[in-house]
Recover the amino acids of this structure.
DNA sequence: CGGTGAAATAAGAATGAGTCTCATTTTCAT
DNA sequence: ATGAAAATGAGACTCATTCTTATTTCACCG
């Protein structure tokens, strides 16, 4: 439960106040190891309004405490951001399963692209689409 | 106008019939060098129904004749897929401008990740987010 | 060529994700 | 405790996308 404390602390420092909605969203994210969609959070917290879910996620994202993962068309998913950790995802095109991976040489290559570009690159995302081992045998 | 012929041909081979809607969508995509959103296509082709725009794009995507580009939350954009060509995009977080880039060592790194993974990787996307030179000076 | 049945189409209703509004409740600095 | 300011929940709203359906068009056949 380290991340939830850090998240609350950072939000307080940033001038936001702690309410019931914020606490519940943070608790939920703290307990998840993988990405959860905004609407699933909304569903799992019936006493929290949709707007509060989205507002909290937005604040957390701005402070780099969560990372938004966008997978093909569907609703955006969020996962907590642990310091010093950086990964991307593979998504199974059949079952939708999301599996994280990290690769240093990929990161280096991306960093080099950013150096050479006219853009001032702030962040990046990589998504690999494919078939996961579980789905591989099926029709 | 090579791509439009190839696209029509492949659609015919795949068993789809040629109608006015399909022709117009293909013409429009053939004339664009950069990604266009589905709704912009719909707007620019007033005589074509929305459903036909989406259906045609879906068929073209299935046959790998167009590539769908998903940029943060907004509506998905489509660009034609020329053989032997493969690029990714940088998006300006201020003005939304989309700029293509390609990088061989990035592709190699991604390919290596795919080799080592349990997933059978089919495709991938890379998106760099940043500030474009035009927006860089502004407040 | 003209008929025919299947596929394509246009219009717009329906869905679903995400945003906005606003009246009410909480928070927190005093 | 108190009161100004922020957070909240309910639901209306927007916008992209999908679905439905009646109609039109296509490609094949004689």
């Amino acid at each position: 439960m380290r991340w939830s404390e850090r998240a609350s602390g950072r939000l307080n420092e940033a001038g936001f106040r702690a309410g019931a909605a914020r606490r519940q969203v943070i608790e939920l994210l703290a307990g998840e190891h993988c990405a959860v969609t905004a609407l699933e959070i909304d569903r799992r917290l019936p006493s929290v309004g949709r707007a509060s879910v989205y507002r909290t996620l937005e604040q957390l994202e701005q402070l780099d405490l969560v990372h938004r993962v966008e997978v093909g068309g569907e609703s955006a998913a969020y996962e907590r951001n642990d310091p010093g950790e950086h990964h991307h995802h593979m998504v199974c095109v059949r079952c939708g399963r999301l599996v994280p991976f990290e690769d240093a040489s990929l990161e280096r290559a991306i960093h080099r692209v950013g150096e050479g570009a006219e853009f001032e690159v702030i962040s990046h995302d990589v998504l690999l689409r494919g078939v996961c081992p579980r789905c591989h045998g099926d029709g």
About this structure: Residues 17-20, 37-39, 50-51, 54, 74-76 of chain B lie near DNA strand D (CB under 10 Å from a C1').
